[in-house]
Amino acid sequence: MNNWNPYLKGFVGFMKLERSLSSRTVEVYSHSVWKLRNYLDMENLIMPPEKVEVEHLREFLVWINQEGIAARTQVKIMHGIRSFYHYLWTEGVVKQNVSLMIDLPVLGFRLPVMLSVTEIDRMIRNIDLNTPEGLRNKAMVETLYGCGLRVSELVNLKISELFFREGYIKVTGKGDKERIVPIGSVAMNEVNRYMRFNRPQLTIRKGQDNFVFLNRRGSRLSREMVFTIVQQLAVLAGIRKPIGPHTLRHSFASHLLEGGADLRAIQEMLGHASIVTTEIYTHMNKEHLRDTIIMYHPRNN
């Protein structure tokens, strides 16, 4: 029998209910499994998932590499397959997770792009407050940078999750995990201005009234629109770096660390499950210190 559908359906339920993974991760992992299944069919290897062996997976990895798929994407695909076989192992379908015997592609260590405080200020100064969207865009950038939010967290932020009197917002992050994030006076003031002067001018669509940031049609902003706005502001500010909304999150964390914030506190604010993820900003801080020494030390001039 070569019917993978019941296994995949059970795997999707496992990811959502037992592991509380985000809908995006569920989609990526499911697609990874189908990619493996389609490869096996293409090679006339008609078999159910419990018959797949290590050699099949090695050949599959060679194939996706030959297809020109980037190493990072290959790793994501293999993570999805590992998770699938872990599910089959927990269900007793397989006796061992054969995917664990496959070495993942080695990735180079890359520091994320970040902005200086001056560059962020330039971006904000280039927001045209005479346009209907100006106040919204300023509030949006200040919230991204002031709270270190992911773009998905920003577009899904709700009015009912703003606790300005207490000085925090409630954010739903990856895996639908909620966290409390402090919000500073600058971001609060800009959100209040937008909520007072711009948002009431919109005709808000049914079911969209609780979202903070809306487009001109009265619907929740899309992730793509936020990307476009941030990138346009970077161009206006004369910034040549390849940036997006996540750059403001990186900058938030790096600037906190430079200012002496505790790494554990930054981890909590960013919603990182592991401190290892947050530690990348210590590397960024070292890069900043190195560049500062090179630029200002008299022996380097």
Commentary on this structure:
Helix content is 55%, strand content 4%. The protein has 2 domains: 5-101, Orthogonal Bundle (DNA polymerase, domain 1); 117-296, hpI Integrase, Chain A. The mean pLDDT is 88. The chain is mainly alpha-helical. A hairpin with a 5-residue loop joins strand 2 (168-172) and strand 3. The longest helix has 20 residues, at 23-42. Helix 1 runs antiparallel to helix 2, helix 2 packs across helix 4 (71-90) and helix 5 packs across helix 9 (223-236). A 3-stranded antiparallel β-sheet has the order 1-2-3. It has 13 helices and 3 strands, in the order αααααααβββαααααα.
Highlighted features:
301 residues; 4% strand; elongated; hpI Integrase, Chain A; DNA polymerase, domain 1; mainly alpha; 2 domains
